[in-house]
Automatic annotation (TrEMBL):
Residue intervals of the Type I cytokine receptor cytokine-binding domain: 13-103
PANTHER family: CYTOKINE RECEPTOR, INTERLEUKIN 5 RECEPTOR SUBUNIT ALPHA
Presence of the UniProt keyword Glycoprotein in the record: yes
Record carries keyword Glycoprotein: yes
Coiled coil: none
Protein name: CSF2R factor
GO CC terms in record: external side of plasma membrane
Signal peptide (residue range): none
Keywords: Glycoprotein, Membrane, Receptor, Signal, Transmembrane, Transmembrane helix
Membrane topology: Single-pass type I membrane protein
Top-rank taxon: Eukaryota
């Protein structure tokens, strides 16, 4: 496809991560050939909502240019979310960047909850129990995999 605007003016290295269940950070770098006055704006659309939302809180880089965004109250759906970053400049047209992202692949899970360790002297050893981490979208506890690292001190 042919995009209007200066080649190399669209953002680069776009990346999003979800943490603490419902917070999302997205970051990017300015296009290599974008004019110095270029400002970028992020819009996104969750597949279950038809509303396109602009960034709630921009992260500012040098020269006050938007280089990221923070969202709160994000819900993860199985379908991919749509992201669009467009830019504006008084000197030239800026190419837009868009991407569909499956947000569940971008979530950093919280640690498991209510971890307890009960050790006895008999051969049974120790019993370690926990509950699944908090997440906004995963309802099947058998989807989680855990790794236990035991170190003798």
């Amino acid at each position: 496809p042919v995009f209007a605007g200066v080649n190399g003016s669209a953002i680069e290295n776009f990346s999003c991560v979800i943490y603490n269940v419902s917070l999302m950070n997205c970051t990017w770098q300015a296009g290599r050939d974008a004019p110095g006055d270029t400002q970028y704006f992020l819009y996104w659309q969750n597949p279950r909502d038809n509303d396109e939302m602009e960034c709630e809180l921009y992260i500012k880089g040098e020269n006050g240019r938007n280089t990221g965004c923070r969202f709160k109250n994000v819900r993860i759906w199985p379908e991919r979310a749509y992201f669009l970053v467009n830019g504006s400049s008084e000197h030239s047209l800026i190419q837009f960047y868009d991407e569909y992202i499956p947000l569940y692949e971008k979530e950093i899970l919280t640690p498991p909850l209510n971890i307890s360790v009960i050790c006895t002297k008999d051969p049974a050893g120790c019993i370690i129990t926990w509950q699944p981490p908090l997440t906004s979208h995963m309802e099947k506890v058998n989807c989680f995999q855990y790794e236990i690292s035991i170190q003798n001190k």
